[in-house]
Amino acid sequence: MKPAASILLAVLALATAGAARAEDPANWSKPIRPYRVVGNIYYVGSEGLSAWLISSSEGHVLLDSGPSPAGAKLIEANIQALGFKLPDVKVLINSHAHFDHAGGLAQLKADTGARVWASRPDEPALKKGQHFGDNDNGLTSFAPVKVDKTFGDGQKLKLGEATLVAHLTPGHTIGCTTWTTQVVDRGRPLNVTFPCSTSVAGNVLVGNKTYRTIVADYRASFATLKALPTDVMLPAHEEQGHLLDKRKKMLAGDVNAFIDPGELARFVTASEAAFDKELARQQSARKP
Ligand SMILES: [Zn+2]
After folding, report:
1. Rg of the Cα trace of the chain?
2. Angstrom distance (rounded) from CA 32 to CA 78
3. pLDDT score recorded for residue 140
4. How far is the CA of 102 from the centre of ligand 1 (A)?
5. Going from the N-terminus, what domains does the chain have, and what CATH number goes with each?
6. 177-188 burial, b if ≥16 CB within 10 A, otherwise e?
7. What protein residues have CB closer than 5 angstroms to ion ligand 1?
8. At residue 119, does pLDDT exceed 60?
9. What is the pTM of this model?
């Protein structure tokens, strides 16, 4: 590549890592009022992209970061609007190393001083600031972030009275992490699951040279997710869990708006059907 071309590409990469992309859905950067969901869990994301604060008396855990430094600032404003202090955010975790959930991590780390935890397989993508594995959507670069602690399947994160458990559910990314926790809400114990994304999202399923186990990983993750006892499913994207509808019901007085013990199974079944369809499409496209 000619130097001029490589400089241009570097400038473009920096620009896309720092700013919202024109093609991103508008609701990813649209602010909404943050709110308590159940127990010690708060919604602090934008209208379309989730970010979850899990609070404790010894500080807070923040799951996901929005797509960019501006997305991080939106989350920070939401955390403060709820009355929490940014330096009390102690740990940043990430559902998966895609720009729309990881692009604000570096900004959040700088502004809160929190430690970044990442699954071992997703760490290289976070450090590099780009998607890992062959993907028809390209590398989707984002601001890289230094990871302070890596972990594997079953890792517990304890902070004060809050305990989260990491379940590796790879496929969508190679280190996709589903977090679970238990809360008490109105005297009821509830199992809460934050499922990692399960869509194909441009992933090459047939002949993926840099992620050879991708199909088997998706299959194993569907099985893992189906087995997680879940009363409340809190996903990474609004539309995956109809979060706006639930919030409206909550505002109308429904204290059980976010409780649906069958939702995760339905979500996984639908994801599996879409996966099978896309796998068949890619298989037939590859035939000579
Ligand atoms: Zn993703």
Report:
1. 19
2. 8
3. 85
4. 9
5. 35-286 (3.60.15.10)
6. bbbbbebebeee
7. 98, 197
8. yes
9. 0.93
